[in-house]
Write a structure and sequence with these properties.
The structure is a single chain. With about 210 residues, the chain is of the alpha/beta class. Helix content is about 20%, strand content about 25%. It has six helices and ten strands, in the order ββαβββαβαβαβαββα. The strands form two sheets. It has a seven-stranded mixed β-sheet with strand order 3-2-1-7-8-10-9. A three-stranded mixed β-sheet has the order 4-6-5. The longest helix is centred in the C-terminal third of the chain and has 12 residues. It is globular, with a radius of gyration of 16 Å. About 35% of the residues are buried. The mean pLDDT is about 95.
C-alpha cells in the first residue's frame, strides 16, 4: 500500500503496537480519522500520536456499529497488570460478553456503556470526500460495521479482522456474506493472514 492520503481506522487502540498496520505508515501530511471507544485507551492513543505532528487528525471516542445508539462493551479492566499478559491483551474489547474470557480466563473484565456512530455518519460529519484505507479491528463486530456501510465512497484499500466474525475464534457464513458484498463492489483480496483480510478496489473504480 502506498500514497495513503486519507485513513479511517476503527478500533485504533493506542496506535503504536506491533500489530497496528498504519502507525508507521503515516506522516504529517496524512489525513487521519481514528476511532477508539475505550476511554483509557483513547487517552493513550492521543498521546502516542502527538509525536507524529500530523496536521489533519481527528479522534473519535465512540464505538462504530450499524446504527447510532448506545451499546454495552466488555473491556479489559485497568485493574489488570498488563505486564503479566501478552501485549494484545488490552486490545480485546468486544460487544461479545465472553470474548475476553475465551482468550484469558484470569483477565479482569468490565462492562461499560458507549455511544456508537456509523461509517456513514463519520463521513457526513467530518466531510470526508475520499478514503484511501479503511481499517477495522473490532473483535467480532466488523461484519455489522461493514455490512451497514453504503459504500458511496469506496476506499482504495480495506483491511478488516475476520478471525472472530462469526463469534470468538469462529469463521463462517458472515465472512462469506461480507466478502460477496465486497466482491460485487469490485474489490479483490490481496492478502489474508491468520487474523486480517486486505482487499483492494479495482483500479478502474479507484480512479472514479
Amino acid at each position: 500500500m502506498d500514497n495513503l492520503k486519507c485513513i479511517l481506522q476503527i478500533g485504533s487502540h493506542i496506535g503504536n503496537t506491533p500489530n497496528d498496520p498504519i502507525y508507521k505508515l503515516v506522516n504529517e501530511n496524512t489525513k487521519l480519522i481514528l476511532v477508539e471507544p475505550v476511554p483509557y485507551l483513547f487517552n493513550e492513543l492521543k498521546k502516542n500520536y502527538k509525536s507524529k505532528n500530523i496536521k489533519d487528525i481527528t479522534f473519535i471516542n465512540k464505538a462504530v456499529s450499524d446504527s447510532i445508539k448506545e451499546i454495552d462493551l466488555y473491556i479489559p479492566s485497568l485493574k489488570n497488570n498488563f505486564n503479566n499478559f501478552p501485549f494484545y491483551a488490552s486490545q480485546l474489547s468486544s460487544v461479545n460478553e465472553d470474548h475476553i474470557e475465551r482468550h484469558f480466563k484470569n483477565l479482569i473484565t468490565e462492562k461499560i456503556k458507549v455511544k456508537t456512530t456509523t461509517i456513514n455518519n463519520i463521513i457526513e460529519t467530518y466531510n470526508i470526500k475520499n478514503i484511501d484505507l479503511l481499517h477495522t479491528d473490532t473483535e467480532g463486530h466488523d461484519y455489522d460495521i461493514l455490512m451497514s456501510y453504503d459504500f458511496i465512497i469506496k476506499p482504495k484499500y480495506i483491511i478488516f479482522e475476520y478471525k472472530h466474525i462469526d463469534g470468538c475464534f469462529k469463521v463462517g457464513e458472515k465472512l462469506d456474506i461480507l466478502l460477496n458484498k465486497l466482491f460485487l463492489l469490485n474489490y479483490k483480496i490481496i492478502n489474508k493472514d491468520t487474523e486480517d483480510i486486505t482487499l483492494k478496489l479495482n483500479e478502474a473504480d479507484s480512479l472514479c
